[in-house]
């Protein structure tokens, strides 16, 4: 229906914007987690930021961006699509019980993990490139080289961990959101009466 379509479109757009804004910070986080130094001392985030800018320029902060952009948009599309269809499948009425919303979030998280694992693997490999690691010419080159050297199974390294993260994470995300909205509904009103700012806060 129109509501489901609008939610999916909004999710895709928000996924794009969020990943574009957060990617430089994610790049620094991954570099901080995977760095190594000869004297055993790790560089602080501020020093990593200056080092990255001075050696590789500002665009280095967006290295591997296509992968998370695709991930963000695809993740939102899959999550909202599976969640909406599954909750309608297990509940016919308009007022879905909270436990079914938690269940819908868990199921959608399980499905989306199979999409996110390969995308996140490529993203991390692009973000952690340095002189001692293989250099990839682009995200696509990293993708094809991974398949060529490790096979399709190589793209799904960490699948179990990703699934263990996504199932409870999305159960809490969807269930927590719907639960918060229910608390914000004015007395005698419906969810449509909740202010958009409250939806954003939830």
From TrEMBL:
Solcar repeats lie at residues 2-89, 96-183. GO terms for molecular function: L-ornithine transmembrane transporter activity. GO terms for biological process: mitochondrial L-ornithine transmembrane transport. Its main location: mitochondrion. Pfam families: Mito_carr. GO terms for cellular component: mitochondrial membrane. Keywords: Membrane, Mitochondrion, Repeat, Transmembrane, Transmembrane helix, Transport. It is found in: Mitochondrion membrane. Belongs to the mitochondrial carrier (TC 2.A.29) family. This is Mitochondrial carrier protein. The lineage of its organism: Eukaryota, Cryptophyceae, Cryptomonadales, Cryptomonadaceae, Cryptomonas. Coiled coil: none annotated. It is a multi-pass membrane protein.
């Amino acid at each position: 229906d129109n509501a489901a379509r609008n939610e999916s479109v909004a999710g895709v757009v928000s996924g794009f914007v969020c990943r574009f804004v957060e990617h430089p910070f994610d790049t620094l986080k991954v570099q901080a987690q995977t760095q190594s130094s000869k004297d055993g001392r790790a560089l602080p985030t501020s020093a990593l930021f200056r080092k990255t800018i001075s050696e590789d320029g500002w665009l280095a902060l967006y290295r591997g961006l296509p992968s998370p952009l695709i991930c963000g948009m695809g993740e939102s599309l899959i999550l909202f699509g599976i969640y909406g269809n599954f909750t309608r499948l297990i509940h016919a009425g308009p007022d879905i019980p909270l436990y079914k919303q938690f269940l819908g979030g868990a199921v959608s998280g399980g499905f989306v993990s199979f999409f996110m694992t390969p995308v996140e693997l490529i993203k991390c490999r692009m973000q952690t490139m340095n002189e001692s690691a293989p250099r990839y010419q682009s995200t696509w080159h990293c993708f094809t080289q991974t398949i060529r050297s490790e096979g399709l199974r190589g793209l799904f390294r960490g699948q179990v961990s990703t699934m263990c993260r996504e199932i409870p994470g999305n159960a809490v995300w969807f269930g927590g959101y719907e639960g918060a909205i229910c608390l914000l509904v004015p007395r005698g009103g419906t969810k449509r009466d909740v202010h958009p700012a409250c939806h954003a806060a939830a």
